[in-house]
Amino acid sequence: xxxxxxxxxxxxxxxxxxxxxxxxxxxxxxxxxxxxxxxxxxxxxxxxxxxxxxxxxxxxxxxxxxxxxxxxxxxxxxxxxxxxxxxxxxxxxxxxxxxxxxxxxxxxxxxxxxxxxxxxxxxxxxxxxxxxxxxxxxxxxxxxxxxxxxxxxxxxxxxxxxxxxxxxxxxxxxxxxxxxxxxxxxxxxxxxxxxxxxxxxxxxxxxxxxxxxxxxxxxxxxxxxxxxxxxxxxxxxxxxxxxxxxxxxxxxxxxxxxxxxxxxxxxxxxxxxxxxxxxxxxxxxxxxxxxxxxxxxxxxxxxxxxxxxxxxxxxxxxxxxxxxxxxxxxxxxxxxxxxxxxxxxxxxxxxxxxxxxxxxxxxxxxxxxxxxxxxxxxxxxxxxxxxxxxxxxxxxxxxxxxxxxxxxxxxxxxxxxxxxxxxxxxxxxxxxxxxxxxxxxxxxxxxxxxxxxxxxxxxxxxxxxxxxxxxxxxxxxxxxxxxxxxxxxxxxxxxxxxxxxxxxxxxxxxxxxxxxxxxxxxxxxxxxxxxxxxxxxxxxxxxxxxxxxxxxxxxxxxxxxxxxxxxxxxxxxxxxxxxxxxxxxxxxxxxxxxxxxxxxxxxxxxxxxxxxxxxxxxxxxxxxxxxxxxxxxxxxxxxxxxxxxxxxxxxxxxxxxxxxxxxxxxxxxxxxxxxxxxxxxxxxxxxxxxxxxxxxxxxxxxxxxxxxxxxxxxxxxxxxxxxxxxxxxxxxxxxxxxxxxxxxxxxx
Length: 748
Fold this sequence. Notes:
Blueprint: E1 3-8, E2 21-25, E3 28-30, E4 35-37, E5 41-44, E6 60-68, E7 71-80, E8 83-92, E9 95-103, E10 118-122, E11 125-129, E12 136-138, E13 143-145, E14 156-157, H1 163-166, H2 193-196, E15 201-204, E16 224-227, E17 229-235, E18 250-253, E19 265-272, E20 281-289, E21 303-309, E22 317-319, E23 345-349, E24 352-356, E25 364-367, E26 381-383, E27 392-398, E28 401-406, E29 409-415, E30 423-430, E31 441-443, E32 447-452, E33 455-461, E34 469-473, E35 494-498, E36 503-509, E37 516-523, E38 528-533, E39 537-542, E40 548-552, H3 554-558, E41 566-570, E42 574-580, E43 583-588, E44 592-596, E45 608-620, E46 624-631, E47 661-662, E48 670-671, E49 674-677, E50 687-690, E51 694-702, E52 711-717, E53 721-732, E54 735-742
Parallel strand pairs: 1-54
Antiparallel strand pairs: 2-44, 3-4, 4-53, 5-41, 6-7, 7-8, 8-9, 10-11, 11-12, 12-13, 14-19, 15-19, 16-18, 17-20, 19-22, 20-21, 23-24, 24-25, 25-26, 27-28, 28-29, 29-30, 31-32, 32-33, 33-34, 35-36, 36-37, 37-38, 39-40, 40-41, 42-43, 44-52, 45-51, 45-53, 46-47, 46-52, 48-51, 49-50, 53-54
């Protein structure tokens, strides 16, 4: 043999300048053996009664694994006719029980133009932004609305009665307070319901404790006292709502009594109709003016913190705080706003919640106050309304950035280090963006990968220390495969990062269908792309053990009555189950195929005779390996005989090799692979699948075809195998040559 040309084995690469495989279906990359392995598939995640064919028995719209402390929750969004809900499950002695977290039945069905439900872990809760409807907070044992939908209604302070009408006796000279029943003293008063229910309190002006409101002057110098109140809600996330409108003003003439020798008095003001907040409200803050008097000589209408009601049910409060206690200014109207309606996107970043794309402001991004994820100050936003491709389609927090995706642009929310303006928006790239927000995923040591209308892109770098963020196309060479994607349903695409195989996996709607039915997989260890077929994945999540789970769309995308529910991607060649009669049967994985590019071996004009194709692989047991040959851009495989015609660019007789050959194990170092399959329910112990001992094998296919200018072959297996490379032996101009592709042949 005169010449050996050796190249790296690649994934899909339809670019002739840097050719890889023309197609490569249903492979994962084995970084230990440096080859493409077919030993992957999926099984039902749940195990128990009714779960044999997949559970729940519905298509799944979204899925998220949430760990809160030491407890794991798998949230699943399911739809069955008009019933649509987010649920969790428990497994007790093999019996699965469903628990509804959020009922979404009143909301519209999923539409192709939206990204779906968003799940954002934040502190001690999970924020859930449904595709439609009000955002929620999930605490494991309860669910509460997220954000403030309205400001509180104002409270109702009650005017105290005239002291002339009360006929009060002289009070205790040490400053005792007397209610209308004369029963409660200042020293004993604890602010409890019994005192508050009296309606108001009365204090000597000079009581030693200093309680009471108003100016307790003598009748000869009567002065008007007037006050107004506002309230706010404080949630269990430490967020404060907008303040209410001001109450009606309460006023009275200060301290006048019939006998000028009697002491003058101040009042404790009863406040009724204090509003009750949403579920999750832990207290109500009360704000009050100082004495405004007649409006011109008083303190003015400025509000100060007075007290808090540390519950969410009492509606009556008695204010006894003097003006000297009103020292902390109330929040400004700019400190908190009502959460915008119809938020589509959210992410957590640096102790703040970042939200974007509301119904009224699709091009606006907001960020919350620090450590207050439900409180959004009025000025904490940026609007892209006057820029090209303005609608925000994705948010993704990564390292020191929040990437803001639009259809034709990417920007970044970056920290400034200033409390007054904590973030600034910096452009990253124009002309590249996405509408597939759920395709955005970080891959360790690479950056963030996302699906755009013309390919997959990688965002890498940051703006710290003078660095820059770069965007590069990652999918050069996908060509025909990428062209099968349904661009009208691109927003339905979803992706995950599979840590076990170090791969980015994106499911897309293809072949005109509006539901995900084709996977694109980027194998980071090999810098290679393959595709994945017949996996009904509508949505993904990762467990804390880095197990890849997906929610099925089998009914919608594949018109299947089985394989619905939640499934686990693992090291078994199985694609769920199906029924034969009443018997539940494992469904075999589709075949793994690797088709070479059209190869001219560096000389497009020369006639070559293909003699032999040798496949280097790691085989598990005995199984069929098939190889089909094609020549000179013809898509039909070689017929048994062909006659030379003018239209045909090749001459001579061809013998088709049908290629079914048993993978015989050759003498070589053996390998044992142990892959963990995920637990079949949240509390089940892991299942360990052991593949039988494996050996490196070289499988030879004798082609012995007559001359051609271009050659391509397609390899197919329905068994566990790892493709390491191949060698094609051919003759050209009387010289025998070899063309090899592998990852690292020397290690074998």
